[in-house]
Amino acid sequence: DTGVSQDPRHKITKRGQNVTFRCDPISEHNRLYWYRQTLGQGPEFLTYFQNEAQLEKSRLLSDRFSAERPKGSFSTLEIQRTEQGDSAMYLCASTPPEKLVQYFGPGTRLLVL
Amino acid sequence: AQTVTQSQPEMSVQEAETVTLSCTYDTSESDYYLFWYKQPPSRQMILVIRQEAYKQQNATENRFSVNFQKAAKSFSLKISDSQLGDAAMYFCASQTPRAQKLVFGQGTRLTINP
How many helices (H) and strands (E) does chain A have? Predict the structure, then answer.
């Protein structure tokens, strides 16, 4: 069990560019969550998947954001036309079947210049 | 809708002493779970302790215990025999089986003084 992994760990981009983050959950975890955490705040829910189905999206997830989990394993989160307000830590978490506890990855820290 | 409030932005404690972090929550659901997560500097979030709302007995994990007051919607975390490695941001969170997502408080930064 290698834990939840996220790639990249850090990303610096210019305003207007597109970025994509990847999350690999713990093996056989069927639910996967994305959260956003700004400095000094608690994480805020963005979206979650059960297997490949995206079951809930937060109103924070504007139309510039899209998330996928094509084969029910890894997930990607894409932000198009980044804005400075997108600068944050993006956290991924996963949960095994029939359990509630979420296991978090190390996060991807995004800085939009 | 669920809300979680942590009213202590920062706390400090002497090494080996006991500290209590406060958390209040609000939910309209009868079935829910409460958690305390720890986020050390530049490290990932890890679960400290969890409490099922239907259980009256307070959860305990080694030096960590909770005081769950359901009627008051209060869920405080007590850390006994504080250690330097306990220094971190602590987040209180709630979750319902129906909504699945975690709702976090604003966090409390805990400093351990040697």
Answer: 0, 11
Tokens of A27: 């093996």
Q: Given A35, A42, A91, which is nearest B105 (Cβ)?
A: A42
Give A51-91 pLDDT, tens digit per residue: 999 999 998 888 999 999 998 899 999 999 999 999 999 99
Cis peptide before A25 (omega within 30 of 0): no
Residues of chain B found within 8 Å of residue A107, distances taken between Cβ atoms:
44
pLDDT given at position A98: 82
**Residue carrying structure tokens 């297997």:** A51
**Residues of chain A with C-beta less than 8 angstroms from the C-beta of B99:** 56
Measured in angstroms, the CA of B83 and the nearest CA of chain A are apart by 23
Q: Kindly determine whether residue B107 and residue A41, on different chains, have CB atoms separated by under 8 Å.
A: yes
Residue A85 contacts B, CB cutoff 8 Å: no
Q: Between the CA of residue A54 and those of A21, A93, A99, A108, B111, what are the distances in Å?
A: 17, 14, 18, 21, 39
Is residue A107 left, alpha or beta, with left meaning phi > 0 and alpha meaning psi from -120 to 50? Answer: left
